[in-house]
Design a protein that fits this description.
224 residues; alpha/beta; 9 helices; 8 strands; 18% strand; binds ligand BJW; NAD+ binding
Length: 224
Amino acid sequence: MRIVVLTGAGISAESGVPTFRDAGGLWEGHRVEDVATPEGFERDPDTVLRFYDARRRAVASVIPNPAHRALARLEGAIGSDLLVVTQNVDDLHERAGSRRLAHMHGELRRALCTSCGARPREDRDLLDRPACHECGERMLRPDVVWFGEMPYELDRIEQAIVACDVFVSIGTSGAVYPAAGYVALAAAFGARTVELNLEPSDAVVPFDDARAGRASDLVPAWVD
Ligand code: BJW
């Protein structure tokens, strides 16, 4: 049975990573257009770099929770029949042991060189303007996908969705495209669709099975 799992901020919430759109969420104190658009970065790069440096350091201090670990166990059981597509820029899935993973909105622990396009692993604060390992320019930004930019690995993700038997959405509000459209794509190609979320999301089409609760309870129960 081929399974595609789409994860969002809700799966990392119980590890201590704030979600975006809940009260007190990540955008609190920031306008989305100031910190998560290319235009915001152009206007005020220091504010954006400070925001992402702080988040990268915060994520380094938290650990995967039972939901991340359950998905890693599922990969251990079914191997290449599973693809985890995450919208999250943290690395909690890989730290839990997942390897078949697509980071469609990029990764906080990587930088993107705006001069040569290199995407090096980068643990230094980007606000300090470190030089690119490839070309030496001091023009690094976080390797994350902002509004108006093209998400990563779309071909691989869509091929897996149209071929899957089960599509599972975990901890995402369904507010951001193209990820929000994946349940409709999966349903159109005959997959059974399942949602595991604190509360039912704003999905474009209803899920076949929607379970409400905390990811750290629902995901292990669904996997095991
Ligand atoms: C729990 C829980 C617990 C809490 N247990 N659950 C079509 C229509 C309209 C607009 C568009 C459209 N297509 C494109 C657009 C424009 C735009 C868009 O979607 N705008 C919307 C505002 C409508 N999209 C884009 O610009 C995208 N690019 C693009 O489309 O390129 C062109 C293209 C064309 C054709 C095909 C393909 C592409 C890029 C979007 C980039 C999003 N980037 C961000 C920031 C990343 C960097 C960073 O982290 O700062 O990604 S925005 C932010 O939202 C982040 C997230 O990955 C993303 C999704 O958020 P998520 O994960 O759903 O979090 P929340 O907070 O919204 O929800 C949390 C959920 O968890 C809630 O439901 C809670 O209930 C639940 N929860 N605790 C279980 N313990």
